[in-house]
């Protein structure tokens, strides 16, 4: 995907143009991160054990969530916020005439390089601490499994978080919906074990939110059996197909209804 | 010119504006519910695990109360006019107020209250429900004094938060890229006001230090007045301090805007 | 074989009317009344290769909607179209590589980057060979005289320069068909002229087919031999621009200048007074009365100067709009 490389390059140049903004994005995301770290503070000050996992182990979950948030704000967030704009101001029309997948153009065009830096950095540090503290061996198998689950998480993130943006094909005001989506997103900050069973079931099978950040750490802690791993993989593929279908439906509606 | 008539008109415009965005507000409330829910589950796990009756000096019931009330209050007092004001300053919208016989401060304040009036009503109804529920569950001892004081401090919190935000807005005269700045300050203010967690989680020294800042008096203080965590004596003292902060920030905002306006008119925007 | 073939293209869309106030909002929630607007009623035409066709009509006539259907952005409600052997709304990538659309009010250039980056992006999107790309870029930027500006951030360019960059970006893959939706809107006269000259050159040099909408009559007059006029979704006229006047050729315009004040009313019996004061009067009258009126006016008024003109094209077109479909 040479095109994607070019997108990234262009974004990089554009962002270098405004160093002030770049710094500001860094700071904004750091403050959000700070808010998230308050949870870590609570965990350590109360010496919280969830399901027998000590605070250090919980860092694996919080760290994974932080990394995922970084990836989300860096790669998807700007694009998903822009899709309603494209529809409103008609930029989508021009994209429709390009011989490249419209979904690709519209949903992955922008990459923000400043926003994810603090999240990814701190997230991986947390994972590192947790990894070390829980005496998890650093083998290729562990790394590969974790990496794969991280990747699956990214795909599910894409599929779930693009839905509010897709709604803007049918409704005018979708800002609040994505706001809700963002506050639900943070439910992932902790291992799902702290939620009652019915919440866990909804979050796993109805809206597979918990698949995004829970399975990676669970795999490392040896709590994940192959059945669930397979489930995550299938879920991500099915979701991707569904979103693809939805997208096509939306564009079809767009081009047969608008003026 | 009849001032009262003018401000009534501005107030009712604020009310109408909030009616326009009512869907947004309700969805916002739903959005605010999720962090509260997440925190509810976290605290439940924390208290179950620790087996202690009180953590950070809060009992289980109290902390849940705090979480819910703080979520509601911070939604209520949230200001959304920063961007409008910054826009007015940057794009010269301020000029149309400068040439009119109306004070910009008065206009913003009254329209802010107008926008909040309905939400205040809704929040009160929600609160009545929550208080009733909590009282029947034995978590909360309802005292008339506290209810009255809570209602007063809530208005105070609204006013104080408005003034803080208004002061911050004056920085739009000097800073180039302002929207980031607002995101940062509003989030920080929210954390320091106890909007996310009770301030006690930071440790006693931090709580003590924060007592000398205006922030706890926007969320932390009103909530604790209602929940009964604040002692009776401290309640009145806190009310006085809140008033003090309001006066101080009123003066500060007048001053900051006075200076900035002078510069603004001198440069010509 | 025809290049573009459009048959009875028809496009309606549904919209909802909402009364003001809360009560109406609630009412809408339960029973919305769907209203149907016919943007394009029934439009048919053919365009051959290398033709340059102007597409005229007042705002809301259905021009842009038609262009959007021909570029595959919109599905028609009914009717068929064949563009370069493809059905546009099937949106085949092979088809997309053959044409380009430029909209005067929308830009595809990246605001904060030099235009050359956006142009390069389009090269990648359209899979243009390196050689062809280099040659096209040099050629196009030379023709538009913007070589030095390629590496300047788009936001620093003037409106005219930006439009030129848009054109380069749109033409970098050498499309055989070019749709232009008001390409000169908001530009100053020298820029308009430059853009027109460029388009004319591109049309002649590469044999590209151009379909252009514009509100500036000059754009169409200079560029397009053939004009298609639509209004309210109907095709009103299809033919040479200057022949529009033939439709109304029964009318002529006489301009009169007097040496001393003349009461306007005295001229009313000769024809319709379009405008005038005591010294200058503009008359519109049927062609067959021209001789007789001229003689009478010259005899009985203190004439300093006088001219006879055709009705301006703009006037004819406005008349056309009012008259609805003609033959």
TrEMBL record, chain B:
The record lists the membrane-crossing segments as: 21-43, 55-73, 117-135, 147-168, 180-199, 234-253
Per UniProt, the keywords (alphabetical) are: Membrane, Transmembrane, Transmembrane helix
| Record protein name field | ABC transporter permease
The protein's matches in Pfam families, at most eight in alphabetical order, are given as:
ABC2_membrane_6 (PF06182)
Name the domain of life.
Answer: Bacteria
Taxonomic source organism: Paenibacillus solani
| Xref: InterPro entries | ABC-2_transporter-like
Automatic annotation (TrEMBL), chain C:
Domain named ABC transporter: which ranges? Answer: 24-257
Q: Where is the signal peptide?
A: none
Top-rank taxon of the source lineage equals Bacteria
UniProt GO molecular function:
ATP binding; ATP hydrolysis activity
Gene3D superfamilies from the UniProt entry: P-loop containing nucleotide triphosphate hydrolases (3.40.50.300)
**What SUPFAM superfamilies does the entry give?**
P-loop containing nucleoside triphosphate hydrolases
Q: Is the Transport keyword given for this protein?
A: yes
Q: Which UniProt keywords apply?
A: ATP-binding, Nucleotide-binding, Transport
- SMART domains xrefs: AAA (SM00382)
User: What is the protein name for this chain?
Assistant: Multidrug ABC transporter ATP-binding protein
Origin organism lineage: Bacteria, Bacillati, Bacillota, Bacilli, Bacillales
